[in-house]
Design goal:
The structure holds two protein chains of two kinds. Chain A is an alpha/beta fold. Chain A folds into three domains: about 15-205, 3-Layer(aba) Sandwich (Rossmann fold), CATH 3.40.50.620; about 230-285, SH3 type barrels; about 290-375, Elongation Factor Tu (Ef-tu), domain 3, CATH 2.40.30. Chain A has eight helices and 17 strands. In chain A, the strands form four sheets. Chain A has a six-stranded antiparallel barrel. Chain A has a five-stranded parallel beta sheet with strand order 3-2-1-4-7, sandwiched between helices. In chain A, strands 9-8-11-10 form a four-stranded mixed beta sheet, with no helix packed on it. The longest helix of chain A has 20 residues, at about 110-125. Chain A is globular. Chain B contains eleven helices and 14 strands. Chain B starts with a strand and ends with a helix. Classes of the chains: A alpha/beta, B alpha/beta. At the A-B interface, strand 2, helix 2, strand 3 and helix 4 of A face helix 9, strand 12, strand 13 and helix 11 of B.
Chain lengths: ~375, ~375
Amino acid sequence: MTENLPRTDRPLRVLAAMSGGVDSAVAAARAVEAGHDVTGVHLALSANPQSFRTGARGCCTIEDSRDARRAADVIGIPFYVWDLAERFREDVVEDFISEYEAGRTPNPCLRCNEKIKFAALLDKALALGFDAVCTGHYATVVLKEDGSRELHRASDMAKDQSYVLGVLDEKQLAHALFPLGDTLTTKEEIRAEAEQRGLAVAKKPDSHDICFIADGDTQGFLADRLGKAEGDIVDEATGEKVGTHEGAFGFTIGQRKGLRIGHPAPDGKPRYVLDISPVNNTVTVGPVEALDVSALTAIRPRWCGGEAAAPGTYTAQLRAHGGETEVFAEVVDGELRVSFTEPVRGVAPGQAIVLYDGTRVVGSATIATTTRAAAAV
Amino acid sequence: MAYLDHAATTPMLPEAAAAMTAQFAATGNASSLHAAGRRARRTVEEAREAFAEAIGARPSEVVFTAGGTEADNLAVKGLYWARRDADPARTRIIASPVEHHAVLDAVHWLAEHEGARVDYLPVDRYGRVHPDAFREAVERNPDDVALATVMWANNEIGTVMPVRELAAIAREAGIPLHSDAVQAFGQLDVHFGDSGLAAMTVSGHKIGGPYGIGALLLGRDQSPVPVLHGGGQERHVRSGTLDVPAIAAFAVAAVLAAERREQFATQIGSLRDELVAAVLAAVPDAVLGGDPEERLPANAHFSFPGCEGDSLLLLLDAQGIECSTGSACTAGVAQPSHVLLAAGTDPQLARGTLRFSLGHTSTKEDVAALAAAIGPAVERARTAGLS
């Protein structure tokens, strides 16, 4: 049975994390409707919140805080703003910058779930006497007969967010409520539900991009923090310099756009970023086939069910909106080793690999190294 | 429900509500010359006279504003501009560092945009300005001072300032002293005529009157440059159509506040003492903020070591106890109180503060509810710790 929004004899004391968006508002409203004692909290994650949105919507503005407060008032629950800006800066923003600086491609949303929403926030909630933290994430929690919990993909695959929750461990999962995750509702239906509940956020645009980069310009953000440093773009096949860049940190493995290589490759095919070397500030490019990866290793594994994955065949997801691919995975010396049944393209160190057994999330780990598929060499 | 946040706002007195609603049915702009206007004008002027008497001022010294914040801005900015216009050397402002943001931010703004130099007065550990310190700041150069501003009693920690002594020093030096008496009015004797002040701010909704109305008591020799320009109402100092219902109700509340003040202060003071004793009994290491003696009779303020004020607020709110951390907010995020920091409180300790403020509807049951809840709440908040 699913345990996304349990109905209990005694109401649970629930802390609803409210971003100011429609999903978390409806999630909080559903928790109230299920009979729980709900308190709303908005996390202030920016030390200098902007008053209004500029460009893409983030979740750090005063306007979002006000939207969350309005939703809480309509739902009829107490509402607080908790200042976690310092923790967020240390654990998410600094990590994001240093990962890019090291030539990797981090996923700050996973990091935020692991370190902020289901750590700093959850710990404080539990200490204050709450039983659970409720969010608007789309994923399914299954309660097993032995009382343990499993995390599964959302009922609606199109909205599934289990990938960014793959970092949760047994304890975190035991105190997480996802009231939206196990119902088959489209985004339009969620908006309609919000409208019906009188929530003004019903018409609010979806958030995307990275919340602490309000204008969506990741390169500009990194350049501000890390400074510009001109370096070479080198073709792997010829070893020849084919262009220059303003900082190797600005690139992602598999990137094609924005390389500004003046002349075409000898074979006339587009070139992609194959490797980023922060040490000598060099970006290596080559043909698309060279992006094919046959295996990888990943560090810092976290197991959703508490136990490490047994060696075997799983499916893996490598990006927040990526598809599934079949893998063989095993844990060797605390490190996850994965080989792909079919080569996959564009795997960037720093990103998370989440392993699934069917719909069940087995665990996640951070990609450290990749092995090129033999065919491409 | 135990409402212990009367310093934020206190329920309207039934008499004030009646006076206000009575005016809603009537038409008339107090500046119009016809019968309807004359009726409105009469209501306003009778209210002004009653209000003036209640606060020890002349009717001509009453400038109605849309609240305490506006009155503070008018006093600080208006007097600064007027005094500087009269003598360009006068660009110094002497201010206490524990002022409400309505004063403090106006002073900051003048420093950033109008060339003001600000001398913040030292305060003792109770947040009090001492007359000697004020005299020293004045005597550094009495001729370059535009104005001085020191609140009558602090809104967070309740400490009462020696306003009359400060006013005497200012008067001697020919410097206008403004005082924000928003919290003091109704609890202390704030007779404007006896105070020696050049200007004094009061607010309606803190004394059982309506929101959105306040007054600047302004000595007749003071002509601040207006902040709001327009139709020339209120001595040409504060333009804008007079809010007849709010003014009528404010006057009723002010008259009752003055009439009842002594008895209210005695009764509420003893209830407050009970509250302080109950909190200290439940949490022996709680630290009482502000002066233990010379404080607003309705104010109690505590720091709870190892607690986050926000956590305490949440836990008490869940028990139906409504109070405040007493500090300012940005997007609802609590910042350590500038008042406590100025008074030299340890910044860690300053994070775990609560202000309990009593009022005309407070009962022993309210105090009993707090007494029962505060111990477990502090214990729990300590577990959650300082994030």
